[in-house]
Amino acid sequence: MIMRWPALIALLLFPINSFAVINTQETLPLTQSFIGYAALAIFVGAYTLVMLEEHLSLRKSKPVLLAAGLIWALIGYVYSQQGQIHIAQAALEHNLLEYAELLLFLLVAMTYISAMEERRLFDSLQAWMVGKGFNYKSLFWLTGILAFFISPIADNLTTALLMCAVVMKVGAGNSKFINIACINIVAAANAGGAFSPFGDITTLMVWQAGYVSFSEFMPLFLPSVANYLVPAAIMSLFVPKTKPDIIHQHVELKRGARRIVVLFIITIATAVAFHAALHFPPVIGMMMGLAYLQFFGFFLRKTLKSSLQRKAAIAIANRDDNALKRLGSVVPFDVFRRVSHAEWDTLLFFYGVVMCVGGLSLLGYLGLVSEIMYSQWNATSANIMVGILSAIVDNIPVMFAVLTMEPSMSMGNWLLVTLTAGVGGSLLSIGSAAGVALMGAAHGKYTFFGHLKWTPVIAMGYAASIGLHLILNASLF
């Protein structure tokens, strides 16, 4: 794995124009060939295993990594037989560049989130919510609203897991509340992530592809609010007003916790500046932001001894034995340990998806789909269907397929497909990373069929968000 890093970083040194999309007239017509059918079967088989991840306990990255290798082996074989291997090589390099940019961007974001978690910021928030003595209905709204507003920064998966931990702690023994609260959290986290480039991988993909700038996502805010509020208001009618037992827990933030939040905000600003002012990929700014965290980690390590001595003196003066014990468990901050705690299964799954979809594109299948959806249908209908597909297949491959098709659309329709791909996954528990993660975190309490019962209500929010976008942002179409 280590030997591949220089190659991935080196890909970023070449201008994107050097990896121009291959002219479809030069590619081989393989959609009705044995090779094409075999590649489709491999992809469908791999994705079936991905959707059965919860039941098989098989990490989702494994089948798509294998499928990507097999599909490109088939492509390489047929193109080499025809003496056109250079076309396949150029397409492969183009897809690797797409993945390299997103990999490094997500790696930095995940490292910051992991650092905040290690400094106990999320534990502190959780302890505050649990100890306030809210009733079930208040907790339902509080966890949902926090999920909506945290996910644009911390991503929908991390946010959903954090709020689920709160629900599981205060709702222990009340399976009905846990199920409906988890559905609310999934819907809120997905809706909140739809109007920010940092809220979901799909929004990040659209931003990095250059179809929507950072500020142009804001028209999606009110449609995203509607997507969350409509189902939440209906579901809240079925949440009891009784109070759970109050659990008081003291959580002390580790040194530098708040400063890491500030550094993360500065990192986001740096990425936006590189993209908006210099027209460079945002990943350059994110990697610069990783340097901020590394230097801060160096500072924390170098000043650890003096900090411990000062705190120990205060604890001894106050005769606080508990404080002394906590000081004995303090460990230096290590950035590379935080890097190792990134969601590598998700990152490798994303590699498999990018390469599989890229292979199917070269074989001609995405061209066929694009011809049907964006030529025979109108773009608005096609983009609404994208959201429904994302609930079944997962929004990452669906959005990457749309970007690979490169349909000619107005800004309003690019925002529409960003919205639908982001929130469409809420229709089913398996439709988003947040839903799949919560089925594991609240195993047996938040289930596929428990979520399915509320799908018609969530669909009302889906329709409301689309309708609001079409009305409020009509000038963008």
From TrEMBL:
InterPro entries: Cit_transptr-like_dom (IPR004680), NhaD-like (IPR045016). One of its GO terms (cellular component) is membrane. One of its GO terms (molecular function) is antiporter activity. It comes from the Bacteria. Pfam families: CitMHS. It is a multi-pass membrane protein. Keywords: Antiport, Ion transport, Membrane, Plasmid, Sodium, Sodium transport, Transmembrane, Transmembrane helix, Transport. The chain crosses the membrane at residues 34-52, 64-79, 99-115, 220-239, 260-277, 283-300, 347-368, 380-403, 415-442, 454-472. The keyword Acyltransferase does not apply. Residues 47-422 form the Citrate transporter-like domain. It is found in: Membrane. GO terms for biological process: sodium ion transport. Belongs to the NhaD Na(+)/H(+) (TC 2.A.62) antiporter family. This is Na(+)/H(+) antiporter NhaD.
